[in-house]
């Protein structure tokens, strides 16, 4: 199956934004070693894609809420069919079908962005001055040469941490500079990828379903660690896209989680007298917030005598003792 339609679509969006910034007056030449018109074109490629996928993102949150609401029933099925994995899976699938909940919906927005990522990866990898197909995917020769020379702090956006000496020579780049810029961006990419997954888990909690929990662990730890290796082959422009996408996700998730908060769950421990004690919570960066101090019941204050009032003798108001 040909992916040319993706390459054309990505190129069209990228070139449209570059033309828009150029028309606004953002200099096409390098300022502080950076061609901001091309950097902003990549950033707003992210914005375009995320606006298109926003309805899917909201469906993802709603599906996760439905999955959370089903956790008590899932736990009951696990207890009922303990040791019978086949029956358990059938019962759980029937429950999800009946309640219209999809366990895989949580990964759908990420899967839909994979073609965009692959398309940008392919387009930026072509930005080699020695490439003869400069007008492929709707580019003009002038646009191709401008993008080939585009850089971030003198590191070409088509360069990567693992660029060979020959590739760097064609791009007119310094190998050390490319490795430093690419290395910093890879670390930022890993960190922001971890934070986006952690933010969601902190708000929604760990799933009771083993399959869902495995997916959560994969997204939290597996994907960021894999970027340490795969990041070496990503062009700098692709890493800029990934980091921008992660920052957009952090802000979007914060907004959606406030609008569609997770269902209330009992997170505290029951203390003496059946009262629930508040437990400390964790922030996005892993710091622990102290639990709020319990409010002590206040005893009603007894009003004192007004200034100048005569003292009241309580004995006078007592009934007289009856003589026996």
Note down, in words, how this protein is organized:
This protein has 324 residues and is mostly helical. The chain is built from 10 helices and 6 strands. It has helices at 4-24, 36-69, 71-80, 85-99, 108-125, 141-149, 165-171, 175-204, 210-230, 236-259; strands at 151-152, 155-156, 269-270, 276-277, 281-282, 288-289. A two-stranded antiparallel sheet has the order 1-2. A two-stranded antiparallel ribbon has the order 3-4. Strands 5-6 form a two-stranded antiparallel sheet. A hairpin with a 2-residue loop joins strand 1 and strand 2 (155-156). Helix 1 (4-24) crosses helix 2 (36-69), helix 1 packs across helix 5 (108-125) and helix 2 (36-69) crosses helix 10. The longest helix is centred in the first third of the chain and has 34 residues, at 36-69. The chain is elongated, with a radius of gyration of 31 Å. The termini are far apart. 24% of the residues are buried. The model is unreliable at 266-279 and 281-286 (pLDDT under 50).
């Amino acid at each position: 199956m040909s992916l040319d339609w993706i390459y054309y679509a990505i190129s069209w969006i990228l070139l449209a934004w570059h033309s828009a910034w150029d028309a606004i007056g953002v200099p096409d030449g390098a300022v502080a070693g950076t061609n901001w018109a091309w950097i902003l074109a990549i950033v707003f490629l992210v914005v375009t894609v995320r606006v298109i996928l926003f309805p899917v993102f909201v469906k993802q949150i709603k599906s996760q809420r439905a999955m959370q609401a089903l956790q008590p029933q899932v736990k009951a099925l696990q207890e009922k069919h303990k040791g019978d994995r086949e029956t358990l899976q059938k019962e759980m699938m029937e429950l999800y079908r009946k309640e219209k909940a999809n366990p895989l919906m949580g990964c759908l927005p990420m899967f839909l962005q994979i073609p965009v990522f692959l398309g940008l990866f392919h387009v930026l990898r072509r930005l080699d001055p020695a490439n003869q197909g400069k007008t492929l995917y709707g580019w003009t020769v002038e646009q191709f040469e401008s993008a080939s020379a585009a850089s971030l702090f003198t590191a070409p956006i088509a360069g990567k941490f693992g660029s060979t000496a020959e590739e760097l020579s064609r791009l007119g780049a310094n190998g050390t500079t490319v490795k430093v810029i690419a290395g910093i961006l890879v670390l930022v990419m890993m960190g922001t990828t971890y934070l986006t997954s952690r933010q969601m888990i902190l708000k929604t909690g760990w799933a009771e379903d083993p399959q869902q929990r495995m997916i959560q662990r994969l997204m939290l730890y597996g994907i960021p660690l894999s970027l340490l290796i795969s990041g070496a082959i990503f062009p700098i422009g692709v890493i800029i896209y990934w980091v921008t996408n992660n920052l957009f996700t952090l802000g979007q998730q914060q907004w959606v989680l406030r609008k569609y908060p997770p269902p209330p769950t009992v997170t505290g421990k029951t203390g003496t007298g059946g009262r629930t004690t508040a437990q400390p919570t964790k922030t996005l960066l892993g710091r622990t917030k102290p639990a709020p101090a319990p409010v002590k019941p206040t005893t009603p204050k007894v009003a004192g005598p007004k200034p100048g009032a005569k003292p009241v003798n309580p004995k006078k108001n007592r009934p007289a003792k009856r003589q026996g």
